[in-house]
Design a protein that fits this description.
Blueprint (H helix, E strand, L loop, with lengths): L1 H14 L10 H4 L9 H39 L5
Length: about 80
C-alpha cells in the first residue's frame, strides 16, 4: 500500500503541479457587475435572433410560393386527364 502511494505521489509530481480540476479560473473568480450590462453581448444576441427570424420568414415565403407554383402546375397538367 505504501509503495502505491509513493508511485502516485511521484506521478503527480511528474505531471507538474495540481490538476486543472482544483485550480481557480480567472473567469469564475471575478464577481459580475449587474449595474453595467455587457451591451455588446446583448446587441449581438438580439441582432442574431432578429436575423434568424428574418431568414425564417423569407424562407417560409419562398416555400409557400413554390408550393403554389407546383399546385397550379399539377392542376393544369391534370385538367385533360379525366
Amino acid at each position: 500500500m505504501a509503495t502505491a502511494l509513493r508511485v502516485a505521489k511521484r506521478l503527480r509530481l511528474a505531471a507538474g503541479g495540481p490538476s486543472l480540476a482544483f485550480t481557480r479560473s480567472a473567469f469564475v473568480a471575478k464577481r459580475r457587475n449587474y449595474d453595467q450590462p455587457n451591451w455588446f453581448g446583448v446587441g449581438l444576441a438580439f441582432s442574431t435572433s432578429a436575423a434568424l427570424w428574418a431568414l425564417l420568414f423569407k424562407q417560409h415565403n419562398e416555400d409557400v410560393m413554390e408550393y403554389e407554383r407546383r399546385k397550379e402546375e399539377r392542376q393544369r397538367k391534370c385538367t385533360g386527364c379525366s
